[in-house]
Amino acid sequence: MIAQEGIMAEALSKEKIREIIAKRAAKEFKDGDVVTLGIGLPTEVTKYIPEDIDVMFQSENGLLGVGKDQKGNDIDTRVINAGGGYVETRHGACFYDSQMAFIMMRGGHIDATVLGALQADSEGNLANWSVPGKFTPGMGGAMDLVVGAKKVIVVMEHTSKGQTKIVEKCDLPLTASGEVNLIITERCVFRVDFDENHNSRGLILEEINPVFTVNDIKACTGAPFRVSKDLKEMDI
């Protein structure tokens, strides 16, 4: 039975929200996976990989073997991730040019990718690069990642300025169509249910933050969903 008591959602700090989401996303990887992380929140995932799981993180700017953030006074400013953050390299890491990085992504060599989103919907569509009326330099490598990765995990806050980010159908410009497998927010985890022909059958609620009830999730989600018979509590 899912707990219905706890602190109010408003009491969750930005830091706690990011921790909940990143910690949950880190559970999706298995030993030996090659994973590419988007900029921003997705990079937090590296902090929560279990020590007994060997995951190689690839950065879109050409680094396979991204380690933890560099700290201290002796920082090598030449080693950065796709978001411009200074990172360490782990044993076995290698550097290559942008062309090779995109060959990795487009060639089906990435086991999973974790990306932020402006919207995700019940059909597995993703919009994460453009807001109409605002300047955007381009979608970058997100299009290639989403289409090329074997598993696509969207991580984002459930709402933004009171508006839901999980909708029945995206109305922002799409990054890719029908490619999202999992949506992780601070409130719950949805799986996009595809049939054998990769047609979406909608969202399934698989995990819920014990701070919330299923009715709470319905009230802040803009798409219908089914509740898994094995609904679990998220680890917060």
Q: What is this structure's SSE topology?
A:
Elements: H1 14-26, E1 34-37, E2 56-59, E3 63-69, E4 87-95, H2 98-106, E5 112-115, E6 119-121, E7 126-127, H3 142-148, E8 152-155, E9 159-160, E10 163-164, E11 166-167, E12 182-184, E13 188-194, E14 200-208, H4 214-219, E15 225-233
Parallel strand pairs: 1-2, 1-5, 5-8, 6-11, 8-12, 14-15
Antiparallel strand pairs: 2-3, 3-4, 6-7, 9-10, 12-13, 13-14
Brief characterization of the structure:
The chain is an alpha/beta fold.
Your description of this structure?
The protein has 236 residues and is α/β, with parallel strands linked by helices. The protein is 15% helix and 30% strand. It has four helices and 15 strands. The chain has helices spanning 14-26, 98-106, 142-148, 214-219; strands spanning 34-37, 56-59, 63-69, 87-95, 112-115, 119-121, 126-127, 152-155, 159-160, 163-164, 166-167, 182-184, 188-194, 200-208, 225-233. The strands form three sheets. A ten-stranded mixed β-sheet has the order 4-3-2-1-5-8-12-13-14-15, with helices on both faces. A three-stranded mixed β-sheet has the order 7-6-11, with no helix packed on it. Strands 9-10 form a two-stranded antiparallel ribbon. Strand 12 (182-184) and strand 13 (188-194) form a beta hairpin. Residues 1-8 have low confidence and may be disordered.
Features:
236 residues, single chain, 15 strands, globular, three-stranded mixed sheet, alpha/beta, ten-stranded mixed sheet, 4 helices
